[in-house]
């Protein structure tokens, strides 16, 4: 061929609003340029930080400003003398000016002091540390299973679009999508815990067992089954739909025709070309919804008395125990924000279109 | 070796919806003997892509094929799926439109070439190491550096992606290469390089080439024989020169006429069309010396991640009353940015001057709005320029409403439509864009601009997205607007033929600069700048397999 | 749906009779053509909708529940839920001819509670959705249309609400505000708009890149013209289809909040019934009907909204139809 003198990336012609389907296609010879990884990281970090600041500010003002006076609210729930009220007020620092309270709260967050629970009479941070582990165990197990199941069924469903399998899978997921999480939990509890008595109805471990012994681990797994099924059933459906839609979109792409023309079998076309491309947008959506899965823990833990942050939140609501609720809100939000940040970074690493600048 | 033949082939897309079956190809017989080159020309919807996809049985399962598609004497319908997979790429491979989405976006291009070799491991490439070597050798054949093997498609330019597609097609030493619009969306100079390269590689190896394109000139520049398809039927078939230079069918004449020969006096200021626009004035306007729109030292810069880039550099232009000025350049040359800055849609660099009728372009939003009445712009794609939900009346009246021109609204709309030669206008008023043809849509867009009584029209590739047979109509309309109304027009294009057809003056742009500027007759007959010469040389000429023989 | 939403503008664009006389009168009656086109479109869409069995079943279920919600006071007066008047009714009676859906721990008929619960559940679902749609549409349009600092700030806010699940925020809001139906509506409406905003934003961005927007700018149009004449009509069908889908989520959210004890305990709602059943451990004590019936009511209504919403979505966006 002749020397490619003009066939190199040309400088951008500016932010032209690319014509839809015009055959000249402006700037065709200029491959798009991505930003540097550091810039991307900083942008995402900045975003996460902003979200965290909003959470912290919201956590303070929602709980102190909106209800007027939280102590009065407590007083309304149970009889108290004015002296008791005043004492409570100074105990929680509510007699100080708002600015001072906010400052104390900020300092508290950075030093791990989240106030004292009205109900438990213990520091909120201690409670959270105690209850964090079980929640992570439950949500991580559920997340892994739901993502795996959802994506796998989703790609099968898309590839066999309109088959019996697809119709079954899609309609099942629609039904699960329409079920309130806690109700599904109650039904499972009723069938397997109540009527059949196959599985324990609540808690994480039979009292007295050592969680690190073999019997203890088996016991924890037994306790885990029902809450995990509940969470997976409701969440996998969404992942299935997203994966299915994403793959169906990918299926009309030209590069699949190229792959077929090269002599690949349909299975190879799906596994090597279509699915990797469909996975990328799916991952974004899956992680965007991870927060939904994590907060699903609130009702599931309440139903199964799972000793985690969700149950703590549930108890804080019934109290009402505002410092505890504020603490669990901030911690839940922090977990979700960190998960999203991690997902953004993983995505950047997975997709070559944004990986290399 | 392998012959490819289509015997009385009809292809029907069966549809479960109530629209019924759609026949895409009807009764086509064509033959591609070993070592031959055949081009199939047709506009969108002519069924040419469907036809070639049938050669490798790549159509959806629901498609019905009647007649025989034979590859090496065997009817491809008789092959098992395993056999057809073995035939694909090893006997016949396809060069898809690489510039678009024919490469997997998340895999390295080298790996995608190797994948083809893996599936047809024969000859010298039976081990991973030899396959790798062959992949590098193929990149070398198509003039790509070895380092490109680890690139992802998005990191390559359109031309480079097309080279990858060609390398991939050559990989398994096929007997036939089918090229599907191999140069669409590429610039004319890149197009020439790709075509010359492809033709040479194919000829050296004795490979048969079946090429389809909407561009008659591209096909005739490469292929010995040409077939013209329309609405699924074969309109004309014969040797390239005969089909292009002495066409028999009216449709072929129309297609051939859409590609003016630069330097041919007959097509100068006379775009060929069956529906020429009417010139109503006894003494048509001609170019005057009165300047309406002028740019001096016009520069535009953008902040990109690589730093500040100057898209337009120190451009001086003057558009006179009743003048048609063509700004010609490749994509990325900054011509669209230039047009947008003349309209005040684009922030310009300090020191740039744009004047309309002697006064500088206003800066304030309100004053700019009034200015827009005087200078209007037609965008590239008429289908995209019209809100699909709005009727023709609503589309044309939009400018009047925005400009708060409330008197004689109906008369203005009808007048504008008739000036754009949509007559009788009343028949079109309540149509929605999808009920109109591409050419009619472009007329509606033009009418929308004319409704404001502008003095200047700026048009960005006004015919690029239209079928070739409509091209002449729209160009003739521009010419008539100038002659009837004294309209000045600045037309942005990549097509030198367009300038030859209708423009008084031409400005050639390269990387943001105007490298040559003057009367069309002077510049195109006797180009001074090397770039203009290169552009002119790259324009495919009808007939004579010009690129193969002279390239 | 489709073309129906531009009716008002089309009427405004009828040729002014005063000016018509200046030129030749129109050969054909344009207004009639437009009306016919819209009628045909409506007919076509209706036949598409009707051919979707799931959507038709969903629509019938919805009509049924809406009717019983409206006529609850006529079918079963409020006094029938008054605990003091149910002293002679057996507690925890399983479903039977006398007690079709069984009775609860206070001897109230569950079918009457479901009937009255439909009022609050559907009302909250619809009201919260309307609120969420309005916020979502405004935010989405703003984020998609305006570039620069303002757009970035709006985008940041949307991101925040996308990342943080609405349930978490709704819990916080409803636990600090006075208990009540209005609080639940606000808590759900204020926290669940982000996904709508995201859809509206991406649609706005896609319309924004169309040439007809650039053409409107060339004609001299400002933000108001582009937003109200092009963007809003383009996103409205999508928003409407999304609305039906969101009502389902809002009903689930209402039941969840009520279940967590954040609802209005003085008003019947399906979530409140489930909360009562949880309080007496009905699930593990064998009172299955107490748990089952309100849940089934929720699932039926949510599923019905989902079916109808998906069918509408498919009609608006034919590319989805094969899915």
UniProtKB/TrEMBL annotation, chain A:
<feature type="transmembrane region" description="Helical">
    <location>
        <begin position="45"/>
        <end position="63"/>
    </location>
</feature>
<dbReference type="InterPro" id="IPR035906">
    <property type="entry name" value="MetI-like_sf"/>
</dbReference>
<protein>
    <submittedName>
        <fullName>Peptide/nickel transport system permease protein</fullName>
    </submittedName>
</protein>
<keyword id="KW-1133">Transmembrane helix</keyword>
<keyword id="KW-0812">Transmembrane</keyword>
<feature type="domain" description="ABC transmembrane type-1">
    <location>
        <begin position="132"/>
        <end position="347"/>
    </location>
</feature>
<feature type="transmembrane region" description="Helical">
    <location>
        <begin position="131"/>
        <end position="153"/>
    </location>
</feature>
<dbReference type="GO" id="GO:0055085">
    <property type="term" value="P:transmembrane transport"/>
</dbReference>
<dbReference type="Pfam" id="PF19300">
    <property type="entry name" value="BPD_transp_1_N"/>
</dbReference>
<feature type="transmembrane region" description="Helical">
    <location>
        <begin position="324"/>
        <end position="347"/>
    </location>
</feature>
<feature type="region of interest" description="Disordered">
    <location>
        <begin position="1"/>
        <end position="30"/>
    </location>
</feature>
<comment type="similarity">
    <text>Belongs to the binding-protein-dependent transport system permease family.</text>
</comment>
<feature type="transmembrane region" description="Helical">
    <location>
        <begin position="220"/>
        <end position="242"/>
    </location>
</feature>
<keyword id="KW-1003">Cell membrane</keyword>
<dbReference type="InterPro" id="IPR045621">
    <property type="entry name" value="BPD_transp_1_N"/>
</dbReference>
UniProtKB/TrEMBL annotation, chain B:
<dbReference type="GO" id="GO:0016887">
    <property type="term" value="F:ATP hydrolysis activity"/>
</dbReference>
<dbReference type="GO" id="GO:0015833">
    <property type="term" value="P:peptide transport"/>
</dbReference>
<dbReference type="InterPro" id="IPR003593">
    <property type="entry name" value="AAA+_ATPase"/>
</dbReference>
<keyword id="KW-0067">ATP-binding</keyword>
<protein>
    <submittedName>
        <fullName>Peptide/nickel transport system ATP-binding protein</fullName>
    </submittedName>
</protein>
<keyword id="KW-0472">Membrane</keyword>
<comment type="similarity">
    <text>Belongs to the ABC transporter superfamily.</text>
</comment>
<keyword id="KW-0813">Transport</keyword>
<keyword id="KW-1003">Cell membrane</keyword>
<dbReference type="InterPro" id="IPR050388">
    <property type="entry name" value="ABC_Ni/Peptide_Import"/>
</dbReference>
<dbReference type="InterPro" id="IPR013563">
    <property type="entry name" value="Oligopep_ABC_C"/>
</dbReference>
<dbReference type="InterPro" id="IPR027417">
    <property type="entry name" value="P-loop_NTPase"/>
</dbReference>
<dbReference type="InterPro" id="IPR003439">
    <property type="entry name" value="ABC_transporter-like_ATP-bd"/>
</dbReference>
<feature type="domain" description="ABC transporter">
    <location>
        <begin position="293"/>
        <end position="536"/>
    </location>
</feature>
<dbReference type="Pfam" id="PF08352">
    <property type="entry name" value="oligo_HPY"/>
</dbReference>
TrEMBL record, chain C:
<dbReference type="InterPro" id="IPR050366">
    <property type="entry name" value="BP-dependent_transpt_permease"/>
</dbReference>
<keyword id="KW-0812">Transmembrane</keyword>
<keyword id="KW-0472">Membrane</keyword>
<dbReference type="GO" id="GO:0055085">
    <property type="term" value="P:transmembrane transport"/>
</dbReference>
<dbReference type="Pfam" id="PF00528">
    <property type="entry name" value="BPD_transp_1"/>
</dbReference>
<feature type="region of interest" description="Disordered">
    <location>
        <begin position="1"/>
        <end position="27"/>
    </location>
</feature>
<feature type="transmembrane region" description="Helical">
    <location>
        <begin position="120"/>
        <end position="141"/>
    </location>
</feature>
<dbReference type="InterPro" id="IPR035906">
    <property type="entry name" value="MetI-like_sf"/>
</dbReference>
<comment type="similarity">
    <text>Belongs to the binding-protein-dependent transport system permease family.</text>
</comment>
<feature type="transmembrane region" description="Helical">
    <location>
        <begin position="153"/>
        <end position="174"/>
    </location>
</feature>
<dbReference type="InterPro" id="IPR025966">
    <property type="entry name" value="OppC_N"/>
</dbReference>
<keyword id="KW-1133">Transmembrane helix</keyword>
<keyword id="KW-1003">Cell membrane</keyword>
<keyword id="KW-0813">Transport</keyword>
<dbReference type="Pfam" id="PF12911">
    <property type="entry name" value="OppC_N"/>
</dbReference>
């Amino acid at each position: 061929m002749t020397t490619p003198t003009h066939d190199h990336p040309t400088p951008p012609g500016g932010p032209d609003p690319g014509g839809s389907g015009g055959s000249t296609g402006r700037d065709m010879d200029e491959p798009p340029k991505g930003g540097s990884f550091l810039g991307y990281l900083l942008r995402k970090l900045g975003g996460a930080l902003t979200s965290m600041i909003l959470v912290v500010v919201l956590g303070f003002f929602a709980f102190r400003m909106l209800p007027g006076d939280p102590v009065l609210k407590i007083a309304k729930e149970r009889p108290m003398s004015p002296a008791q009220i005043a004492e409570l007020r100074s105990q929680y620092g509510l007699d100080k000016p708002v600015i001072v309270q906010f400052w104390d709260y900020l300092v508290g967050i950075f030093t791990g002091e989240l106030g004292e629970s009205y109900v438990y009479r213990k520091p909120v941070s201690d409670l959270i540390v105690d209850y964090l582990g079980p929640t992570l165990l439950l949500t991580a197990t559920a997340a892994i299973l739901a993502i795996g199941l959802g994506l796998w069924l989703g790609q099968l469903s898309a590839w066999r679009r309109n088959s019996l399998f697809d119709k079954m899978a899609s309609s099942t997921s629609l039904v699960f999508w329409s079920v309130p999480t806690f109700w599904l939990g109650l039904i499972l509890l009723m069938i397997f815990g109540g009527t059949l008595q196959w599985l324990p109805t609540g808690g994480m471990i039979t009292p007295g067992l050592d969680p690190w012994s073999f019997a203890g681990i088996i016991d924890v797994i037994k306790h885990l089954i029902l809450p995990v099924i509940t969470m997976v059933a409701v969440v996998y459906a969404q992942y299935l739909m997203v994966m299915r839609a994403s793959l169906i979109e990918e299926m009309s792409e030209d590069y699949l025709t190229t792959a077929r023309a090269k002599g690949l079998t349909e299975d190879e076309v799906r596994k090597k070309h279509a699915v990797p491309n469909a996975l990328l947008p799916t991952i974004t959506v899956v992680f965007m919804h991870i927060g939904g899965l994590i907060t699903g823990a609130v009702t599931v833990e309440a139903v199964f008395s799972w000793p985690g942050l969700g149950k703590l939140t549930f108890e804080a609501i019934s109290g009402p125990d505002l410092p505890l609720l504020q603490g669990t809100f901030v911690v839940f939000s922090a977990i979700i924000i960190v998960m999203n940040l991690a997902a953004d970074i993983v995505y950047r690493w997975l997709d070559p279109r944004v990986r290399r600048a | 070796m392998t012959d490819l033949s289509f015997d009385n082939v009809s292809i029907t897309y069966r549809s479960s919806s109530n629209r019924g079956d759609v026949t895409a190809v009807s009764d086509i017989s064509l033959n591609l003997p070993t070592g031959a080159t055949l081009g199939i020309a047709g506009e969108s919807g002519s069924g040419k892509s469907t036809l070639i996809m049938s050669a490798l049985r790549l159509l959806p399962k629901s498609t019905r094929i009647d007649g025989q598609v034979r590859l090496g004497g065997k009817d491809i319908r008789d092959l098992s799926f395993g056999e057809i997979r073995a035939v694909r790429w090893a006997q016949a491979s396809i060069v898809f439109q690489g510039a678009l989405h024919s490469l997997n976006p998340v895999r390295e291009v080298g790996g995608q070439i190797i994948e083809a070799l893996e599936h047809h491991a024969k000859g010298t490439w039976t081990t991973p190491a030899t396959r790798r070597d062959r992949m590098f050798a193929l990149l070398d054949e198509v003039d790509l550096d070895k380092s490109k093997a680890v690139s992802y498609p998005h990191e390559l330019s359109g031309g480079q992606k097309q080279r990858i597609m060609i390398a991939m097609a050559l990989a398994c030493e096929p007997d036939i290469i089918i090229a599907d619009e191999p140069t669409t969306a590429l610039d004319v100079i890149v197009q020439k390089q790709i075509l010359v390269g492809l033709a040479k590689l194919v000829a050296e190896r004795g490979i048969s080439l079946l090429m389809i394109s909407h561009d008659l000139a591209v096909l005739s520049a490469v292929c010995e024989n040409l077939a013209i398809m329309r609405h699924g039927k074969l309109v004309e078939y014969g040797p390239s020169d005969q089909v292009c230079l002495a066409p028999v069918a009216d449709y072929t004449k129309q297609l051939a006429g859409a590609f003016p020969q630069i330097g041919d006096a007959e097509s100068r200021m006379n775009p060929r069309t069956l529906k020429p626009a009417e010139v109503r004035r006894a003494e048509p306007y001609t170019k005057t010396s009165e300047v309406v729109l002028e740019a001096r030292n016009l520069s535009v810069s953008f902040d990109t991640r690589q730093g500040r880039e100057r898209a337009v550099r120190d451009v001086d232009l003057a558009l006179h009353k009743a003048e048609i000025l063509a700004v010609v350049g490749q994509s990325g040359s900054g011509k669209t940015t230039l047009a947008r800055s003349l309209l005040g849609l684009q922030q310009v660099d300090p020191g740039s001057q744009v004047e309309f009728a002697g006064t500088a372009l206003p800066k304030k939003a309100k004053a700019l709005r009034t200015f827009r009445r005087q200078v209007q712009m037609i965008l590239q794609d008429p289908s995209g320029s019209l809100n699909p939900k709005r009727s023709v009346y609503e589309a044309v009246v939009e400018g009047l409403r925005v400009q708060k021109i409330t008197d004689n609204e109906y008369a203005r709309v009808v007048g504008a439509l008739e000036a754009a030669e949509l007559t009788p206008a009343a028949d079109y008023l309540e149509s929605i864009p999808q009920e109109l043809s591409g050419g009619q849509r472009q007329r509606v867009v033009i009418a929308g601009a004319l409704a404001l009584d502008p003095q200047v029209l700026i048009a960005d590739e006004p015919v690029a997205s239209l079928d070739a047979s409509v091209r002449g109509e729209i160009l003739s309309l521009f010419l008539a607007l100038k002659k009837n109304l004294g309209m000045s027009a600045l037309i942005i294009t990549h097509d030198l033929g367009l300038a030859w057809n209708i423009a008084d003056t031409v400005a050639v742009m390269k990387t943001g600069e105007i490298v040559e500027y003057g009367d069309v007759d002077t510049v195109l007959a006797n180009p001074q700048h090397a770039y203009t010469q290169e552009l002119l040389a790259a324009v495919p000429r009808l007939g004579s397999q010009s690129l193969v023989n002279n390239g | 749906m489709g073309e129906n939403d531009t009716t008002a503008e089309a009427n405004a664009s009828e040729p002014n009779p005063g000016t018509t006389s200046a030129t030749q009168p129109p050969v054909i009656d344009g207004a009639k053509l437009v009306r016919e086109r819209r009628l045909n479109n409506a007919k076509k869409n209706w036949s598409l909708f009707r051919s979707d069995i799931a959507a038709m079943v969903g629509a019938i279920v919805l009509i049924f529940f809406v009717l019983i919600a409206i006529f609850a006071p006529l079918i079963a007066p409020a006094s029938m839920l008054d605990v003091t008047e149910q002293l002679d009714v057996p507690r925890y009676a399983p479903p039977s001819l006398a007690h079709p859906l069984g009775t609860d721990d206070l001897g109230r008929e569950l079918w009457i509670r479901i009937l009255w619960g439909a009022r609050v559940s559907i009302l909250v679902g619809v009201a919260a959705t309307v609120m969420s749609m309005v916020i979502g549409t405004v935010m989405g349009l703003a984020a998609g249309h305006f570039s620069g600092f303002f757009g970035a700030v709006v985008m940041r806010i949307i991101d925040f609400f996308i990342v943080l699940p609405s349930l978490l925020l709704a819990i916080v809001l409803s636990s600090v505000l006075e208990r009540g139906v209005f609080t639940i509506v606000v808590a759900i409406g204020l926290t669940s708009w982000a996904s709508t905003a995201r859809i509206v934003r991406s649609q706005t961005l896609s319309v924004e890149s169309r040439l007809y927007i650039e053409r409107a700018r060339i004609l001299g149009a400002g933000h108001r013209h582009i937003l109200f004449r092009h963007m809003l009509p383009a996103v409205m069908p999508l928003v409407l289809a999304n609305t039906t889908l969101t009502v389902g989520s809002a009903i689930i959210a209402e039941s969840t909040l009520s279940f967590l004890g954040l609802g209005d305990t003085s008003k019947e709602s399906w979530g409140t019934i489930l909360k009562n059943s949880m309080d007496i451990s009905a699930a593990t004590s064998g009172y299955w009907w107490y748990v089952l019936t309100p849940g089934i009511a929720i699932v039926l209504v949510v599923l019905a909204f989902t079916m109808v919403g998906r069918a509408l979505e498919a009609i608006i966006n034919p590319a989805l139809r094969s899915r």
